[in-house]
Each structure stands twice: as C-alpha cells, then as structure tokens.
Amino acid sequence: MKALLVLALSSVCVSAFADEASTQVSHQQPVVEHYSYSSELDIAKVISMSEIPNVCEVVPARMVYEDSQGIKHTLEYRVMGNGCSNG
To answer: Where is the secretion signal located (predicted)?
Structure first.
C-alpha cells in the first residue's frame, strides 16, 4: 500500500515538473509580432532580416530588431518575392 502511494505521488510530481519545464521553454521563445498598416513600430536597430525568395508571389518575411529601449522584437510581414520580371 505504501509503495502504491509513493508511486502515485511521484507521478504527480513528475507531471508538475513537466508542466513547469514546458512553461519555461515557452517563455524563452520570442513572440512573433505580425505587421499591419496600423502597427506603430519603434525600430532603433535592425539585427537581421530574412532572405526574400526568388518567386513571383507574396511571401512571409521576418525582421529581428531592437527598439529604443533595447528590447528585441521579431516582426513578421508580407513582401513580394524577387522572382517577378517586368517584361
């Protein structure tokens, strides 16, 4: 009976640790902001920009930047690909 009680308590503890670990991982992943025309951007320094593919269609792109307070942001926006020709 004691062994069964210990087993039940240990399974509860393991699941609690798993929930805490998944919560910590979700805090480490940056939140991706989606751009719209009404977005007010505070871009002090561009850190990186994704490469635009060589296709003739609208594609998603990302920019990582720091705002004027030094906080890092990831912005996703849509852009026309580089594969279109005008002739």
So the answer is: 1-18
Q: How many folded domains does the chain comprise?
A: 1
Q: Is residue 65 part of a domain?
A: yes
Cα dihedral 51, 52, 58, 59 in deg (nearest 10): -20
Q: Which domain holds residue 42?
A: 33-80
β-strand pairing of 58-66 with 72-80: antiparallel
In a domain, 26, yes or no: no
What band does 52 get if pLDDT is binned at 50, 70 and 90? very high
What confidence score (pLDDT) does residue 66 get? 96
Contacts of residue 21, Cβ cutoff 8 Å, sequence gap at least 6: none
CB of 51 within 8 A of CB of 79? no
Give the pTM.
0.61
